[in-house]
């Protein structure tokens, strides 16, 4: 437990350093505790979405359908909420999420084409499906009495439960070991008797749990969900995908579950900080891209630098001897 707490504290240094940086620039805005809590709440939905992306990412799958499936699930949930209330919204979102996940997973299994190509094409199809279901106005609204799940403390409770489910599936199931084996080397995993295509299919199904939760919270928080076309839904995947890449850097100090949240929280601090100091949207993208590059450069070269320092130390010790 002591080691876990120490490693978690090390991981939390990243958002603390970033927050202190913006605190120095805009003290009035960031010295308020409500600012920290607001950033935390805004990090919940992207984090849960990242949990949906993570399973496929570990298996080596590039899934661009995540955003379009969140929208379809939200649209179906919103339509059923108008007829059957909160149970209709929840059941509708989960049903749509599992159906679209099963379609994507089965096509990936049997067509045997690169997941990048397949999911890009399916994204456009799911976007059209969502647009058609949303009607001529292109969005679906829900009654405010069904939108309480998107507010505190319910959204926090749902987030904690989602994190626990993700952690259990990703660390304490047979699927978790097979998933990492497939992502590490699919050929070797297949030769070891692992049904690689089944593992990939399961990654879509398990991810569907978090897509449905993300759709429900999005619908509850904003009160509506709008359809996207022209690959507009891909933007929903962008921040979660970056948070997963950053979380991979923290794997030596914390679990992927915590790493994804810390990464997403750090990204949101950057976005809100840049808005607070009046930076335009285009510059925000530049800073975000540069931040990602710096973190990945550091992660990829940490071992190399450590080896060089160790080698120099050995040379000095040998010279003294």
Q: What would your notes on this structure say?
A:
The chain has 321 residues and is mostly helical. Helices cover 80% and strands 2% of the residues. The chain has 12 helices and 2 strands; from the N terminus they run H-H-H-H-H-E-H-H-H-H-E-H-H-H. The protein has helices at residues 2-25, 27-30, 33-58, 66-111, 115-134, 154-171, 174-184, 186-191, 196-222, 235-249, 256-276, 281-320; strands at 139-141, 224-226. The protein has a two-stranded antiparallel ribbon with strand order 1-2. Helix 3 (33-58) packs parallel to helix 6, helix 3 runs antiparallel to helix 9 and helix 6 (154-171) packs antiparallel against helix 9. The radius of gyration is 21 Å and the shape is globular.
Features:
321 residues; mainly alpha; two-stranded antiparallel ribbon; 2 strands; 2% strand
Q: What is the mean pLDDT?
A: 87
Alpha-carbon distance between the two ends? 41 Å
* DSSP, total strands: 2
Determine Rg (CA atoms, Å): 21 Å
Q: In percent, how helical is the residue content?
A: over 70%
Q: Helical stretch count?
A: 12
Task: State which percent range the strand residues make up.
Answer: under 5%
Helix-strand makeup class: mainly alpha
Largest sheet: 2 strands, antiparallel
Q: What best-fitting shape do the alpha-carbon axes yield?
A: globular
- Low-confidence parts lasting 5 or more residues at pLDDT below 50? none
Reading the helices and strands in chain order gives: HHHHHEHHHHEHHH
What order do the strands of the largest sheet run in, or round the barrel if closed?
Answer: 1-2
